[in-house]
């Protein structure tokens, strides 16, 4: 499947097969989740990042089924570049109605960045002015977990983390994703 | 009510404890991106009509419920947690809504007025539909009910039998509570499952006003 | 379309995917009165304009060009089974009489055995590319079983009357319902048996009217 037809697929799924709701409800709900974590963990932002990632991971394990069912994808991606394309053009499109740009491929095609021009989760957000949050908190860290969890279910172990965030005063919002390995559990016949 | 100690303020800062410009003075430690616009540069109506997928919300909400479940004792405690989340969302929605109404915004001073505002304007803004009914509880002077045949947050949720008392729409109850509080109509709002044949997920929000609200209502408008 | 089907039906255009009604027609399309032909045309126009889907079970025509008459009503789905990644049975429900009831232990064995056979048949496939599928259809004199394995390894098995075309459409729809009412339910634990009232309700609503 070519890159343009994927873009078309993403567009089609978003338009015809997606129930939609008010974006601000999602934004504010996410905000409430992060704020609650910050409060519960007493401003330990490293731990907040970890929790967000974990919650995202749990979501990813489930979200992948919704993604596959709605997008009707039945073929595995041929390579990691394809995977990146699908994540951006179909995945992000159908859940968050954005298409982050893929950039900065490593020479071995195992690492890339997603550049977020728009980030619906972070509309309305300014990090706390406590001299700490801007250095430590990755506000949208849940997204990393989602990608990690979802790809794990389709036999890819990846590492995902933010390297830049506009909320921290950077010029871009950038997530780095690297392929650790393909999980070979195709044949469970031998185990147990 | 100091339930909102969240570090994140809503973008519209009319009632925020620190005036908006305070964080833009030289004393701020926050860094702002030079190329990207901060929340102060963006129009607040930018996201007024934008949409996201219901699935995205369902997963987020589901995870919120699961996460809340880990640290609670019993159903009531869980509902309280969800109510608190809703409360935080409600406070911000109210600000947005009133700001958007602009000059036509009016301050509701009567119980019926504020309840109608909730079941119509607020409900429509958040869920794109009005609430299904608004009733007064006959036996109790201070209780009202708003019902929703199919609360959005519950669309995909099936509560297990052993927790049958739970209704995750406690989240919406929190939103309603925040809006009532914001209008100085302090009340307790709880969500109850009240299924009908057509609507297995029908939910009733029971609103119980604090005594001072009724007292004021009586003073200002004569007894009702 | 086999000629000997004697029940013809016109499916109504529906306002929501997943819902449908139908009217049984005595004669074929030619004998339609002007009135009903007009009604049909109107339905089709509405469907074109609004992009409503034809959700008729057996309709595989590209929407919304979908056929008018020939949705056969005599569709019987006997049972639906769902297997988790490890081949454990996490859901089993009978919808229509037609299969003998097995003991719950036998269902588990059936699931495990099929899981193993499926794994081996996907190995045996001569095309060596990734995603080669294993066994998809099992047919006997009295039933046909269709298997659909998702990319995550979950399997959906649908048992139906023999010679049912387009069972894959049914299976896919079951998958969609699963992704909505099982995966989005925070009280469901992944890989565990499914006890979700919403899933059961929507699944029955989808499968039952097609008797």
TrEMBL record, chain A:
<keyword id="KW-0931">ER-Golgi transport</keyword>
<keyword id="KW-0256">Endoplasmic reticulum</keyword>
<dbReference type="InterPro" id="IPR007194">
    <property type="entry name" value="TRAPP_component"/>
</dbReference>
<dbReference type="InterPro" id="IPR024096">
    <property type="entry name" value="NO_sig/Golgi_transp_ligand-bd"/>
</dbReference>
<keyword id="KW-0813">Transport</keyword>
<dbReference type="GO" id="GO:0030008">
    <property type="term" value="C:TRAPP complex"/>
</dbReference>
<dbReference type="GO" id="GO:0005794">
    <property type="term" value="C:Golgi apparatus"/>
</dbReference>
<protein>
    <recommendedName>
        <fullName>Trafficking protein particle complex subunit BET3</fullName>
    </recommendedName>
</protein>
<keyword id="KW-0333">Golgi apparatus</keyword>
<dbReference type="GO" id="GO:0005783">
    <property type="term" value="C:endoplasmic reticulum"/>
</dbReference>
<dbReference type="GO" id="GO:0048193">
    <property type="term" value="P:Golgi vesicle transport"/>
</dbReference>
<dbReference type="GO" id="GO:0016236">
    <property type="term" value="P:macroautophagy"/>
</dbReference>
<dbReference type="Pfam" id="PF04051">
    <property type="entry name" value="TRAPP"/>
</dbReference>
<comment type="similarity">
    <text>Belongs to the TRAPP small subunits family. BET3 subfamily.</text>
</comment>
<dbReference type="InterPro" id="IPR016721">
    <property type="entry name" value="Bet3"/>
</dbReference>
UniProtKB/TrEMBL annotation, chain B:
<dbReference type="GO" id="GO:1990070">
    <property type="term" value="C:TRAPPI protein complex"/>
</dbReference>
<keyword id="KW-0813">Transport</keyword>
<dbReference type="InterPro" id="IPR016696">
    <property type="entry name" value="TRAPP-I_su5"/>
</dbReference>
<comment type="subunit">
    <text>Part of the multisubunit TRAPP (transport protein particle) complex.</text>
</comment>
<dbReference type="Pfam" id="PF04051">
    <property type="entry name" value="TRAPP"/>
</dbReference>
<dbReference type="InterPro" id="IPR024096">
    <property type="entry name" value="NO_sig/Golgi_transp_ligand-bd"/>
</dbReference>
<keyword id="KW-0256">Endoplasmic reticulum</keyword>
<dbReference type="GO" id="GO:1990072">
    <property type="term" value="C:TRAPPIII protein complex"/>
</dbReference>
<dbReference type="GO" id="GO:0006888">
    <property type="term" value="P:endoplasmic reticulum to Golgi vesicle-mediated transport"/>
</dbReference>
<dbReference type="InterPro" id="IPR007194">
    <property type="entry name" value="TRAPP_component"/>
</dbReference>
<dbReference type="GO" id="GO:0005783">
    <property type="term" value="C:endoplasmic reticulum"/>
</dbReference>
<keyword id="KW-0931">ER-Golgi transport</keyword>
<dbReference type="GO" id="GO:1990071">
    <property type="term" value="C:TRAPPII protein complex"/>
</dbReference>
<protein>
    <recommendedName>
        <fullName>Trafficking protein particle complex subunit</fullName>
    </recommendedName>
</protein>
<keyword id="KW-0333">Golgi apparatus</keyword>
From TrEMBL, chain C:
<keyword id="KW-0931">ER-Golgi transport</keyword>
<feature type="transmembrane region" description="Helical">
    <location>
        <begin position="69"/>
        <end position="91"/>
    </location>
</feature>
<dbReference type="InterPro" id="IPR007233">
    <property type="entry name" value="TRAPPC"/>
</dbReference>
<comment type="subunit">
    <text>Part of the multisubunit transport protein particle (TRAPP) complex.</text>
</comment>
<feature type="compositionally biased region" description="Basic residues">
    <location>
        <begin position="36"/>
        <end position="45"/>
    </location>
</feature>
<keyword id="KW-0812">Transmembrane</keyword>
<dbReference type="Pfam" id="PF04099">
    <property type="entry name" value="Sybindin"/>
</dbReference>
<dbReference type="GO" id="GO:0006888">
    <property type="term" value="P:endoplasmic reticulum to Golgi vesicle-mediated transport"/>
</dbReference>
<dbReference type="GO" id="GO:0005783">
    <property type="term" value="C:endoplasmic reticulum"/>
</dbReference>
<keyword id="KW-0472">Membrane</keyword>
<dbReference type="InterPro" id="IPR011012">
    <property type="entry name" value="Longin-like_dom_sf"/>
</dbReference>
<dbReference type="GO" id="GO:0005794">
    <property type="term" value="C:Golgi apparatus"/>
</dbReference>
<keyword id="KW-0256">Endoplasmic reticulum</keyword>
<keyword id="KW-0813">Transport</keyword>
<keyword id="KW-0333">Golgi apparatus</keyword>
């Amino acid at each position: 499947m070519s890159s343009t037809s994927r873009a078309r697929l993403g567009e089609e799924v978003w338009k015809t097969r997606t129930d939609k709701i008010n974006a601000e409800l999602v934004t504010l709900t996410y905000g409430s989740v992060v704020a609650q974590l910050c409060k519960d963990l007493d401003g330990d932002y490293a731990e907040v990042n970890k929790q967000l990632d974990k919650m995202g991971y749990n979501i990813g394990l489930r979200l992948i089924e919704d993604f596959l069912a709605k997008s009707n994808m039945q073929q595995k991606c041929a390579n990691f570049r394809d995977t990146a394309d699908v994540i951006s053009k179909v995945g992000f499109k159908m859940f968050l109605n954005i298409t982050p740009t893929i950039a900065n491929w490593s020479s071995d095609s195992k690492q890339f960045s997603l550049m977020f021009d728009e980030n619906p989760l972070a509309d309305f957000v300014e990090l706390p002015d406590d001299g700490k949050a801007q250095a430590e908190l990755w506000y949208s860290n849940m997204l990393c977990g989602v990608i990690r969890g979802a790809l794990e279910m389709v036999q890819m172990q990846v590492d995902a983390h933010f390297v830049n965030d506009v909320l921290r005063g950077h010029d871009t919002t950038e997530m780095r994703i690297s392929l650790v390995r393909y999980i070979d559990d195709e044949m469970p016949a031998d185990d147990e | 009510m100091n339930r909102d100690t969240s570090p994140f303020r809503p973008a519209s800062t009319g009632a925020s404890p620190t005036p908006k410009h305070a964080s833009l003075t030289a004393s701020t430690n926050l860094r702002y991106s030079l190329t990207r616009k901060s929340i102060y540069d963006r129009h607040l109506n930018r996201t007024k009509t934008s949409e996201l997928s219901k699935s995205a919300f369902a997963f987020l909400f589901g995870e919120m419920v699961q996460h809340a479940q880990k640290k609670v004792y019993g159903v009531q405690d869980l509902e309280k947690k969800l109510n608190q989340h809703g409360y935080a969302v409600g406070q911000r929605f109210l600000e947005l809504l009133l700001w958007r109404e602009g000059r036509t915004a009016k301050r509701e001073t009567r119980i019926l007025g504020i309840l109608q505002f909730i079941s119509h304007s607020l409900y429509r803004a958040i869920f794109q539909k009005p609430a299904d009914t608004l009733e007064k509880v006959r036996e109790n002077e201070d209780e009202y009910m708003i019902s929703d045949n199919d609360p959005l947050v519950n669309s995909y949720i099936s509560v297990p039998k052993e927790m049958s008392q739970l209704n995750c729409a406690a989240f919406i109850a929190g939103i309603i509570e925040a809006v009532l509080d914001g209008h100085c109509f302090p009340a307790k709002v709880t969500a109850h499952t009240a299924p009908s044949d057509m609507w297995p997920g029908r939910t009733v929000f029971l609103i119980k006003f604090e005594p001072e609200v009724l007292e004021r209502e009586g003073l200002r408008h004569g007894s009702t | 379309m086999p000629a000997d089907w004697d029940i013809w039906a016109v499916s109504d255009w529906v306002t929501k995917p997943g819902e449908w009604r139908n009217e049984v027609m005595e004669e074929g399309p030619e004998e339609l009165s002007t009135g009903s032909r007009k009604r049909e045309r109107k339905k089709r126009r509405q469907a074109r304009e609004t992009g409503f889907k034809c959700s008729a079970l057996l309709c595989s025509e590209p929407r919304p060009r979908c056929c008018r008459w020939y949705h056969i009503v005599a569709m019987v789905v006997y049972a639906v089974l769902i297997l988790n990644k490890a081949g454990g049975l996490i859901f089993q429900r009978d919808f229509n009489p037609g299969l003998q009831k097995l003991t719950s232990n036998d269902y588990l064995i059936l699931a495990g055995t099929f899981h193993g056979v499926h794994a081996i048949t996907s190995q045996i496939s001569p095309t060596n590319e990734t995603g080669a599928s294993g066994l998809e259809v099992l047919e006997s004199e009295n039933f046909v079983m269709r298997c659909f394995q998702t990319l995550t390894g979950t399997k959906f098995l649908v048992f139906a009357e023999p010679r049912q075309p387009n069972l894959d459409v049914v299976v896919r729809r079951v998958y969609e319902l699963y992704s909505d009412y099982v995966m989005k339910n925070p009280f469901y634990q992944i890989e565990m048996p499914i006890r979700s009232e919403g899933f059961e309700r929507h699944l029955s609503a989808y499968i039952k009217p097609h008797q």
